[in-house]
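subagent[fold] <- orchestrator: predict structure for attached chain, return tokens only, no commentary.
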Amino acid sequence: MTHPTFILNGEARDTGSLGTLPLMDPATETEIAQIPKAGRAEAIEAARLAAEGFAEWSAVSPFERSKILRAAAAIMREEAEAAAADMTREQGKPLAQARGEWMVSADCLEWFAEEGRRTYGRLVPSRAANMTWAVHQRPVGPVAAFTPWNFPAFTPMQKLAPALAAGCSVVLKPAEETPMTAWRICRALLDAGLPPKAIGLIWGDPAEISDTLIKAPEIRKISLTGSIRVGRLLASAASHELKKVTMELGGHAPVIVARDADLSQLVPLAAEWKFRNTGQVCVSPTRFLVETPLYDDFVAGMAEAAAKITVGNGADPKTAMGPLTTAAQLTKVQGLYDDAVAKGARVAAGGQRIGNQGWFFAPTVLADMTADMRAMNEEPFGPLALVAKVDNIDAALAEANRLPVGLASYAFTENSRTRHRIASGIKAGMLGVNHFALAMPETPFGGVLDSGMGSEGGIEGISAYLTPFLITARESAWNLE
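subagent[fold] -> orchestrator:
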């Protein structure tokens, strides 16, 4: 494993103004390395370089930008095995999941490389015969991107790919827990020919770095994937600077299980997607709202499936679920579990820490959940499947919409009328019907209410890094005689 370093002006920096911090292996609780810790000084430099990089990169034609980004995607695919091993070691997820995330991140980069060639403007019919009205799309400017540790490749790429394809430069601050994966992405981009100043990579003191970058006059857009608390702070600070923002702030995804759902299909999918990445997924199916006729069978099926999941070090090919990524997350999950049990939840499966080394918690199914339990109100971000009984679809929708968040939602039904009722009544940015796969490069990804603002992915994702520029001209202005 190569130790990650800052990247500024295309150069590796292995020292930071605030010293160093430990990079930990969540499966063993051992230190992988001491890595540099940045603060205000590096953030100021990164913003300045991004302004210079923007002038250079935005002047490159979309056609040539596309070539460079596609070349970077090819480099990423060549490095898939080494990158997956690094991701597993610093984040904890099983190798197969790490490999899949790395490859879909390369897909994302390639998709936006092509979409950058289609940032079309338009001609607007004018009110006068001798006038032309033309709308162009220009890159918004240097971007500061802040990403979490749960998907250390795909989440940064959701920001890097559209921003770079649009012609923006980027300062990327990944999570301090998982900088190695971001480092590999940035190296691939630079090796493919991205101008050195078009991308900067730093991490360290989150508050100091974010405050500096948001206030830096060179930075024109802020993009964050993180908690609602941090989102409020960054959005407020950005508003004072009149800077554009995209905020993906997590959720607490409901799964409405109608009485006609096919449990033979649902249960295996629910277990796979609930415990994927140890439940540390902002769109993880979490609150299973099951109509009474299927309730007992669903709980029993989920408990059986959860008990069969192999938990261990992600580097072991037999592992299906790794550790939680941080000690703090383990403490949070344990606290939510304890609160639910104390208030009457029934433990159908799991419910305990595994071992005394590594941040492991068993795949857990809690039945008979009620709205007064903390886990039903706070996003667990861990391997807790919460199951509640509902009398009908209206009751399910009322519970699903009770929280002030609305990112992902899911519904399982074989009835088109029920599907329409749920789709028209749910308050969320996304709805998966009879499946759980939502985040694709081609489709918008975002939420409503406290889950944030704006979308990543799809044409909406690149639009967030563009600003319209209108040119109106009289016909005589184009006369060369």
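orchestrator: received. Logging for downstream: The radius of gyration is 24 Å. The chain has a mean pLDDT of 96.
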